[in-house]
Amino acid sequence: MDNKDKIIADEVLLKVSKEIAIKFIEVGRLTPATFETSFPKIYVTVKKTVKKT
Can you give the residue ranges of every domain in the chain? Predict the structure, then answer.
């Protein structure tokens, strides 16, 4: 994977993580007040899941 692919992959991971966070906010599982601590956990989980495949 070259640097450009890594940048694109990171961008996709951020977009997916953001969409998950938004859904959690919409259903009340996450609040804007806890976003700062919750988002990194979501991102790391998505990243680990993608790397397993």
Answer: 3-52
What sections of 1-53 are H helices per DSSP?
3-26, 35-52
What single letter denotes the amino acid at residue 44? V
Model pTM?
Answer: 0.81
Nearest Cα to 48, choosing from 35, 19, 40, 23? 40
Give the C-alpha separation, 19 to 44, whole Å: 14
Sequential pLDDT tens for the chain (53 residues): 567 667 768 899 999 999 999 999 999 999 989 999 999 999 999 999 988 76
